[in-house]
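Retro notes
What went well: the complex prediction finally ran end to end.
Inputs used:
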Amino acid sequence: MKVLGLETSCDETGLAIFDSEQMGSDNQGLVGQVLYSQIELHALYGGVVPELASRDHIRKLVPLLNELLEQCDVKKSEIDAIAYTKGPGLIGALMTGALFGRSLAYGLGIPAIGVHHMEGHLLAPLMGAKPPAFPFVSLLVSGGHTQLIAAHGIGQYEILGESIDDAAGECFDKAAKMLGLPYPGGPNIAKLAENSDQNTYDLPRPMLHRGLDFSFSGMKTAVHNLIKDTDGSDSDPQVRADIAASFQHAMVDTLVKKCVKALKQVSMSRLVIAGGVSANTHLRETLEAELAKINATVHYAPPALCTDNGAMIAYAGFERLQAGQADDLAVSCIPRWPMTELPAV
Ligand code: KG4
Ligand code: ZN
């Protein structure tokens, strides 16, 4: 089954073709993907402007689809189904991909399915050669979400803990802004932190001894105060680099300790990390080392499949379509959508 995936929930227009018949081959079923990021469009305003995001998705969807079909050497008539992001996200941005996908599917006489963006992230690591088996604990860390989930199967999700304020990615982005780094903050902090001393400054590890919830707003304040105290944002580059490294270390330390705690709490031995922050090398390496100590394993997708993309939507859509699920002709997007409301497969 060839599934066209469309991702338009925020500021990336991502399209991909997943072909279940090519699973197990070198490309693991991912025939091809294209991604257009609106970062430059929103940079001027210091954050994503929803109306501009929607308008830009509309401009890019048709040319990107044509580019993808050409790249994959696939004709529209060869597509078997379309999966689009139905939520959560910006309502206008979601509507562009959903209406485009639903209409195209109608025109082609094929099924369409609305996919949960975070389920797309969660399942992306399963597209690899040796996918982790259910059940596993999933750490979802993106720009809008930080959640620890016990995943018993597709659509069988139990929230173990989540952030009570900022998301991990959001905290990376805000700390980066304070250090004068551009959006997205995560990769820029990681780059600045290279060759710096992560033990220079002792930043807080919030809520370590309180269950599996997270809180990151205090870390923001701590970075703000540190920059003020050291005058690091615009003076010595080494000071800025050491702040970035110390901040990244505190974030990773907090996430890793909570993951270990979650695995022990539910007696599971596999951890799957997903979402933009899971692209972070320091997080991956620290998890590899710490989980080895408790005989557990960590699984993640290649970096391009950690941040927003169309491939994860195509794959999640495929899993549900092959179980007989599909959406009817009505297009309804859900800007706020708890993953626990998803039907099981
Ligand atoms: O999953 P994603 O692409 O979009 C959302 O669904 O939110 O995640 C974007 C977030 C941003 O906050 C970005 O700074 C963060 O992921 N991110 C990273 C890295 N790459 C992206 N954070 C830390 N290290 C990275 N290498
Ligand atoms: Zn995302």
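What we learned: The first strand starts at residue 2 and ends at 7.
What to try next: split runs per interface for comparison.
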